[in-house]
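Me: I keep going back and forth on a fold encoding question. No explanation is needed for now; the record alone will do.

Assistant:
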Amino acid sequence: MNEDVQSRMPAFVEGPFETVGLDAGHWLIQDEEEIVLDYVMKHLERNR
């Protein structure tokens, strides 16, 4: 996503928010499964 979209996203989110730059397209979960799961699990642990 471009920087303009990324800079406006926090306005639509309540709670902790983080963006992660990955070199993947539409099939993010399939292409980068381990990386995505790692970030999601760390986010959930930090924000119980």
Notes: The mean pLDDT is 89. The two ends are 28 Å apart (CA to CA). The helical segments are 3-8, 28-31, 33-46.
